[in-house]
Recover the amino acids of this structure.
């Protein structure tokens, strides 16, 4: 009787293993190569403006503006905060987009970012509103041309001099 | 049978279009620009009440409302622009909006600290000068420029509004602050 029970247990184990084995996945491997992926010199880069201090990353594909401010209930305008230069002989479609912001954002009335062909001249694309998180839309940056990035900042009337916000934008270049 | 051929032909066309669209995928590069921190500062230039007319100065003294009555021709002065720091500034006034000004026969708004600069002019119900020339606000705590309303005449009764920016420019830069000043003229 005991032998019969042991035999039943072994049969059960074998059947269990069979079920597990039959459930194993079946794979096929295919290979895809990308060769070679090169590092190119950037065709569009950031350039420091005359109205704000900017730290540019290696190859000028990253820019950090460090000293912009505003007074409460007044609009502060930096007409030449940063520049975007097309080094290429062909035009490039660009779009400046909101990425993120943090800090005392509930005390900001608005922050607008606009692109101009020359300081004080014609606006290119739409107005990027940091407060609503939109973009300039696509604009064509002509060959061998530099355009200007204007910032407009307004803090609420009750904002304190200890308040700050950090803003990150993304420039898409096609 | 003919319908079946037509359907296949249509399917081929659709597949061909999809193929063309697919091989035209976009290529782009993303770069990042950060502004940090953007800080809120104590105003270096403030508005203060004048000695005539009625003025309201709002929180932080960076905007104001001035009320004057057209039965009096000259209000000297309705507001003060006061420097709070050692830096010089270049200031001027510019109209950005108005309502019901057709009743105003004439109006001048000027800056002065002795020498007067006519910044804004209305004549015959229209703005004939919407922006004034640059005017120096000298450096130094308590340095003052005065804002005066003159030549005020209205042809009919009513209330007119003139919305004006006081532009405060950091000399030799493209950086400036805009203060909103509303003139209410009865």
């Amino acid at each position: 009787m005991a032998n019969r029970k042991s035999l039943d247990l072994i049969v059960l184990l074998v059947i269990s293993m069979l079920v597990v084995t039959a459930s194993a996945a079946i794979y096929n491997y295919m290979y895809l190569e990308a060769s070679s992926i090169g590092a190119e010199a950037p065709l569009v880069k950031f350039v420091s403006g005359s109205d704000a201090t900017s730290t540019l990353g290696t190859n000028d594909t990253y820019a950090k503006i460090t000293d912009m401010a505003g007074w409460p209930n007044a609009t502060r305008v930096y007409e030449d905060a940063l520049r975007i230069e097309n080094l290429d002989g062909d035009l490039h479609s660009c779009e400046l987009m909101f990425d993120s912001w943090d800090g005392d954002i509930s005390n900001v009335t608005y922050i607008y970012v606009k692109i101009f062909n020359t300081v004080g001249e014609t606006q290119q694309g739409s107005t990027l509103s940091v407060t609503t998180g939109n973009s300039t839309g696509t604009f064509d940056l002509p060959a061998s041309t530099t355009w200007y990035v204007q910032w407009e900042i307004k803090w609420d009337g009750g904002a304190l001099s200890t308040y700050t916000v950090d803003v990150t934008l993304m420039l898409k270049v096609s | 049978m003919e319908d079946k051929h037509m359907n296949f032909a249509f399917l081929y066309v659709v597949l061909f279009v999809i193929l063309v669209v697919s091989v035209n995928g976009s290529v782009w590069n993303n770069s990042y620009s950060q502004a940090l921190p953007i800080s809120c500062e104590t105003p270096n230039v403030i508005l203060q009440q004048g000695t005539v007319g009625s003025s309201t100065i709002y929180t932080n003294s960076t905007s104001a409302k001035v009320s004057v009555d057209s039965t009096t021709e000259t209000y000297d002065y309705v507001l003060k622009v006061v420097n709070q720091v050692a830096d010089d500034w270049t200031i001027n006034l510019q109209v950005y909006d108005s309502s019901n000004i057709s009743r105003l026969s004439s109006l001048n708004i000027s800056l002065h600290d002795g020498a007067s600069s006519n910044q804004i002019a209305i004549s015959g119900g229209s703005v004939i000068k919407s922006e004034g020339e640059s005017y120096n606000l000298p450096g130094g705590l308590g340095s003052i420029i005065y804002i005066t309303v003159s030549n005020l005449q209205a042809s009919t009764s009513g209330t007119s509004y003139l919305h004006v920016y006081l532009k405060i420019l950091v000399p030799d830069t493209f950086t400036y602050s805009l203060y909103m000043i509303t003139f209410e003229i009865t």
